[in-house]
């Protein structure tokens, strides 16, 4: 029975797992959606681009003799996670998720929680503010509906088409970020409010600490519904699961 892992990536945690997998000399392929121009290089082979929905992923799992799937995508990448869940069910491929617990507000934090992007846009009615929009490129234009604000956008790549926000500034930077740097950023840009997703994990947590240090409010977008798969928080737990999980035998 040959072990060949598929790691669905695009997160700091997935990259950490890839290094641990390489250190163990496991047979694995790392998958990127292809959203950023120059993805972080990985110590294991990688592929880039969508699979073509559930059917495409199921075909990939069969064609590439994948024995186990590790979903280490971002908690807001719900489509990919549901596709992985269904494709693994169809092909009877063992699936596990590498997840991180959501960030929790502490005493003294000023968080407003909303269900989704639309909820965040609706919550921004009111007088003009200087807003740090830490959401990534895909959803930024929704905030054009609240055009009174000045938005500071932190993006991995410079946008190829200008954001549809009348008052904005783009900062091109790639995490993981540090608290001191984010404190300086919020001060330099006179930020009044931070809008972000409850991603959890350490790679993007600096903004939470920075907001706390400066007493700034956060408009926090809650996580979407994710499939009912087994989920663990560390690479060690993934390896423990692999040690106890029979691989799919595709007869090769
Ligand atoms: P999504 O909405 O869940 O996925 C949309 C489609 O993109 C999927 O149906 C799939 O296409 C493709 N896709 C997503 N992740 C992929 C992967 N790792 N490998 C191959 N194809 C993938 O995903 P998203 O929210 O746009 O996120 C895209 C990527 O960025 C993910 O890898 C995620 O980990 C990373 N990321 C996302 C966020 C976020 O806030 N959403 C933040 C940081 C990083 P097909 O249906 O054609 O297979």
List the helices and strands and how they pair.
Blueprint: E1 5-8, H1 12-23, E2 28-32, E3 46-48, H2 53-63, E4 68-71, H3 78-91, E5 95-98, E6 111-114, H4 117-123, E7 130-134, E8 150-155, E9 168-172, H5 179-188, E10 193-197, H6 206-214, E11 218-221, E12 231-232, H7 235-244
Your description of this structure?
The chain is 29% helix and 20% strand. It is an alpha/beta fold and 252 residues long. The strands form two sheets. The protein has a six-stranded parallel sheet, with helices on both faces. The chain has helices spanning 12-23, 53-63, 78-91, 117-123, 179-188, 206-214, 235-244, and strands at residues 5-8, 28-32, 46-48, 68-71, 95-98, 111-114, 130-134, 150-155, 168-172, 193-197, 218-221, 231-232. The radius of gyration is 20 Å and the shape is elongated. The longest helix is centred in the middle third of the chain and has 14 residues, at 78-91. It binds NADP nicotinamide-adenine-dinucleotide phosphate. NADP nicotinamide-adenine-dinucleotide phosphate binds at residues 8-11, 31-33, 35, 50-53, 56-57, 73-74, 76-80, 83, 136, 197.
């Amino acid at each position: 029975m040959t072990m060949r892992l598929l790691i669905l990536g695009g997160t700091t945690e997935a990259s950490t797992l890839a290094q641990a997998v390489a250190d163990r000399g496991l047979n694995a392929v790392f998958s990127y959606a292809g959203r950023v121009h120059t993805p972080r290089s990985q110590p294991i082979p990688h592929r880039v681009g969508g699979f073509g929905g559930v059917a495409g992923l199921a075909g990939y799992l069969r064609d590439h003799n994948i024995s186990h799937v590790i979903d280490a995508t971002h908690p807001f990448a719900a489509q990919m996670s549901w596709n992985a869940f269904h494709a693994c069910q169809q092909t009877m491929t063992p699936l596990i998720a590498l997840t991180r617990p959501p960030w929790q507000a502490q005493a003294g934090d000023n968080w407003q929680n909303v269900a989704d992007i639309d909820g965040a846009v609706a919550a921004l009615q009111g007088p003009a503010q200087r807003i740090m929009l830490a959401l990534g490129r895909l959803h930024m234009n929704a905030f054009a509906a609240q055009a009174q604000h000045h938005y500071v956008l932190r993006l991995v790549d410079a946008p190829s088409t200008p954001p549809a926000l009348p008052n904005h500034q783009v900062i091109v930077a790639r995490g993981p970020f540090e608290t001191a740097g984010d404190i300086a950023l919020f001060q330099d840009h006179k930020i009044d409010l931070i809008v972000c997703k409850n991603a959890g994990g350490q790679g993007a947590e600096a903004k939470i600490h920075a907001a706390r240090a400066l007493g700034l409010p956060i408009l926090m977008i809650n996580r979407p519904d994710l499939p009912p798969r087994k989920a663990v928080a560390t690479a060690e737990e993934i390896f423990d699961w692999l040690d106890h999980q029979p691989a799919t035998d595709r007869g090769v």
